[in-house]
Amino acid sequence: MLKTVKSIFRQKCPNCEEGSVFHSNGNILRMKSPGMNENCPVCGHKFEKEPGYFIGAMYMSYGLSLAELGGLFLLWQLTGLPLSGFIYAAIVLLVALMFLNFRLARIIWMYLFR
Ligand SMILES: [Zn+2]
């Protein structure tokens, strides 16, 4: 179980847990999206099982975003900052974590249905 969680955060193949799923992490400043391998470089496992397979990963991305916003909100409440600035901080946080959420959402989706 712990190895699986570790493999999810290391973004490894759901089949062998060794090969990298992504060949590039993407760069928000250059507006370059993450690059995903079609097959695992170690075991050859095909990541996109069928067309539209990753549409369900949007639910994972939504959940991750809500969790991050919840964490930010709790932090905001603990610091006692005025609530009017929360929306701007939330936008900055979500944009900054956009590609990380994209990658983690796909990885979690693949691990759910392996
Ligand atoms: Zn593999």
UniProtKB/TrEMBL annotation:
Keywords from the UniProt entry: Membrane, Transmembrane, Transmembrane helix
Transmembrane region(s): 59-79, 85-104
Name of the featured protein: DUF983 domain-containing protein
Organism this protein belongs to: Roseivirga thermotolerans
